[in-house]
Design a protein that fits this description.
About 35% of the residues lie in helices and about 15% in strands. By secondary structure, it is of the alpha/beta class.
């Protein structure tokens, strides 16, 4: 309050809803529960300021909120009920933690007077979420709601962004309190130290084979533009870290690929040859470091690491120069620095770009559906501001290898490898940006984990387009199985429904594609329908990765067992068929 008057008495449920408004929240994603009925009533009173998105599964709700956080840079808000609801939500919290996405999860809690009696659905959330969240708290006193909620949003966005969990006890939501709302604090972002960028440029001036990797979260549109200008002005080769394709224009002559799971072997080998490694925003975690094998831990290759959180700098690799800074502030400072004159590494950059172009060339794989060529045809027809979401699995390496994310496009994917992310993330993205085309890539495994969330798209009148890559298996696990236990298929085969009829049962647009030339027309019909749409791509189970068939993996395993060097997989090769389950549903209509 600013007028000196006493704040009016409000129940805790209304105080919570008002606290969300005070923090600038515009969307909240929920699965309702009786443990927070009073908060739901408070949100009813704020229905013109906060859109409450009703979801069908708690993991889906948190994935939608996490997608909101990725797209906006503001904390996504999810609300779930106690016990089972919180347990279902945990996977979304883990995504937000490893993906460094700001998120606030509210969990209804038992009456605090029943604590430690193993009351109905009782869970100690401080213990449960301790390794998954930046901070976990519980509000038992309604008078502390503004204070603790404001701090929750501060923690979610400070340093390395991430999730905060707030338990809200049941009777506290009915308790009356007279306290003022607390809005966000005005916090100026940390800038790089005065000597940071000059020191980096001095190191860059001595390099012959520099290599830049963009990663992390918290980049604004202005920050991405500034770091692009810096990288291009210095003609640097630029890779992105795992599932961060939206940070740099994939069509740029300086883009050289992605360092993550399934990275091109040539790119990895070239990265190991660099004499200066610029880690710009990335944590240098397991995917980008190729299992901590990319560089020498002790710093034989000089590393410049830039991160918002000083605790992340040098956490694994010892940098020659660590710069603690807001990433967008660093990008602006780097752009203002005079570029290296006549950089000697221009040939090195062209060499890496040529390798990227060679990797993106569609190989001859045979069969009626050439996924690479179908996706490349689709890419040319997509709007320049398309939002892509991806699930986790082997299928995901096809679009990242053969497609290019443009400068105005966004790409959302779970860097923690969570299956079930793609569909709800696409719905969340479409709710945030209903005017943009949203395309989801998901495998048949992930589709049946959270595919029921498509009901949320109908309920809230948004129309993402879901591409289901159906090869009747958990493909990534089957790949590792064939490498380790060739021919011994155990637990990885799937039997699927007709996915097109699945979405048609909701009233959406469904198509089945089995031929290369049919994907683009199917997509155009899906988009023209104006409805939530699903296109099932019936892919060849034999082509288990974008580089290898099942037969090739088995042959490599046989050679390895015999002590022979396994040759580089070439495609095509005569397949070695293994028993597969029947595929239900009709052929394409």
């Amino acid at each position: 309050m600013t007028d000196g008057k006493r704040a009016p008495q409000r129940p805790g449920g209304k105080l919570l809803a008002d606290a969300l408004v005070a923090q600038g929240v515009t969307h909240a994603f929920c699965v309702p529960g009786e443990s927070y009925l009073d908060l739901l009533d408070g949100l009813y009173a704020q229905r013109n300021r906060i859109q409450l998105v009703t979801c069908r599964f708690e993991a889906g709700a948190v994935h939608m909120a996490e997608a909101y956080g990725k797209l906006t840079g503001k904390p996504g808000v999810a609300i779930v009920t106690r016990g089972p609801g919180a347990c279902h939500a945990a996977i979304g919290v883990h995504v937000a933690f490893q993906d460094s996405t700001p998120l606030v999860l509210l969990i209804g809690q038992i009456p605090f007077e029943e604590t430690d009696r193993e009351s109905f659905q009782e869970v100690d959330y401080r213990k449960m979420f301790a390794p998954l969240a930046k901070w976990v708290t519980q509000i038992d006193d309604a008078a502390r709601i503004p204070e603790l909620m404001a701090h929750a949003f501060d923690v979610a966005t400070s340093g390395r962004p991430g999730p905060v969990v707030v338990a809200i006890s049941e009777e506290m939501q009915r308790e009356m309190a007279s306290v003022p709302d607390i809005g966000p604090a005005r916090v100026l972002p940390p800038h790089p130290a005065p000597e940071a960028v000059p020191a980096m440029m001095e190191m860059l001036g001595r390099a012959q084979r520099p290599f830049a990797v963009l990663g992390g979260s918290g980049w604004s549109a202005a920050g991405r533009a500034a770091i692009r200008d810096f990288l291009l002005a210095n003609d640097l080769p630029v890779a992105v870290s795992f599932r961060r394709q939206g940070l740099f224009d994939g069509t740029s002559p300086n883009f050289v690929g992605d360092l993550g799971v399934g990275a091109d072997a040539t790119l990895v080998s070239k990265a190991k040859e660099c004499d200066l490694f610029l880690a710009l925003g990335t944590r240098m975690g397991e995917p980008v470091s190729q299992g901590y094998t990319l560089l020498d831990m002790a710093g034989a290759t000089p590393i410049v690491q830039v991160h918002q959180d000083q605790a992340e700098i040098g956490r694994v690799y010892r940098p020659a120069l660590g710069i603690t800074s807001d990433l967008n502030a660093f990008a602006a400072a780097a752009r203002a620095a005079a570029p290296v004159a006549d950089p000697p590494w221009s040939g090195w950059t062209r060499e890496l770009r040529a390798a990227r172009e060679a990797q993106a060339a569609a190989p001859e794989v045979g069969g009626p559906l050439d996924v690479a060529r179908a996706l490349q045809a689709l890419e040319k027809a997509l709007p320049p501001d398309t939002i892509f979401t991806t699930d986790a699995g082997n299928f995901a390496t096809w679009p990242t290898r053969f497609m290019h994310v443009g400068e105005r496009q966004d790409f959302l994917g779970p860097t923690n490898g969570a299956m079930g992310y793609g569909v709800p993330a696409a719905i969340g993205a479409a709710i945030v940006h209903p005017d943009r085309c949203v395309v989801c890539f998901v495998g048949d495994g992930g589709m049946l984990m959270t595919g029921q969330e498509i009901a949320t798209a109908f309920h809230h009148s948004v129309a993402p387009i879901v591409l289901v890559f159906n090869n009747q298996m958990y493909g990534t696990i089957r790949m590792h199985q064939e490498k380790t236990f060739p021919g011994r298929v155990s637990g990885t085969a799937l039997t699927n429904p007709d996915f097109a009829r699945f979405i048609e049962s909701f009233g959406g647009h469904g198509e089945v594609v089995e031929r290369t030339d049919d994907l683009l027309p199917a997509f155009e019909r899906a988009r023209a329908s104006g409805k939530p749409a699903l296109i099932e791509l019936r892919t060849d189970p034999e082509q288990i990765t974008n580089r290898s068939t099942v037969a090739q993996l088995r042959e490599q395993a046989r050679r390895a067992a015999e002590g022979a060097a396994a040759p580089e997989a070439a495609s095509p090769m005569q397949p070695a068929r293994s028993p597969e389950p029947r595929r239900t549903g009709p052929r394409p209509r």
